[in-house]
Design a protein that fits this description.
Elements lengths: L11 H7 L7 E4 L6 H8 L6 E5 L15 E4 L6 H7 L5 E7 L4 H5 L25 H7 L2 H12 L4 H12 L7 H7 L9 H17 L1 H15 E11 L2 H13 L18 E3 L8 H6 L7 E7 L1
Parallel strand pairs: 1-2, 1-4, 2-3, 4-5
Antiparallel strand pairs: 5-7, 6-7
Helix pairs in contact: 1-2, 5-9, 6-7, 6-9, 10-11
Length: 301
Amino acid sequence: MITMEYHNPVLLTEAVNGLNIQPNGVYVDVTFGGGGHSREILSRLDINGKLIAFDQDKDVLENVIDDSRFLLINENFRFFKRFLRFQGYTSVNGILGDFGVSSHQFDVAERGFSTRFEANLDMRMDQNADFSAYDVVNKYSEVQLRDVLFKYGELRSASGMARLLVKTREKGPILTTEELKSALRQFLPKHKEYKILAQVYQAIRIEVNQELDALKEFLTQTQEVLKPGGRLSLISYHSLEDRLVKRFIRSGLFEGEPEKDVFGRVKVPFKPIGKFKIPSEEEIKVNNRARSAKLRVAEKL
């Protein structure tokens, strides 16, 4: 069973507490993974409650929970409103999202997500997708590569890296993660090698999976799907994600400021619930993946 390969769910109690579970309510977990958060939500529902989970990774089908109150939809959460309506749900009581790459995806070498393993350039969260890391590294122009590395990896050496990748692939395609590392070797000083590589991988992965676009589409739909008083409980792992979540909760927008009415009042769709939460030192010791997690909770007005 693949379930054993998934690590502990991050901020489990805090994230589920943030939903303020109503036992007979309808809830959505848009990042099912190993099912840790979903199982905790189900434990707080009565026989009339319902949980719908989403995950685009086909590996999670091995983790389906055998419970009549549970439904797993093997699709990207950017389409979650459409699939909820198909199942007969136009509004829900709460939505949980734990973004980023699952521990399982990092730990399966051939998926190409981890700097620890040699693998083909892949990084697809949806294994049925045609577009992979190979396409970004080998087919993007120098300008496109620079923009991806700078925008999504926040790499100051993005221009030089892009130039070197284009020069390297003139001799033949860059096929594996090791070949990618070798191509960028001059930008990987020993004391910073893994930090910089992680930024490179993050940039390529975000581009392959269109993660930030998917996150924006998902967040926008939550305004329509959540009932008044319903809760969002969202865990982010890097500043690009967290910035979008924070701005959306604050104003319902991703940039700019909300409009004011004639009385100078601002109409916003959510109110933040408390301050953001981060994992305890004890949790980080048990689950190192949790170290960069940040939980934000909001309530629909």
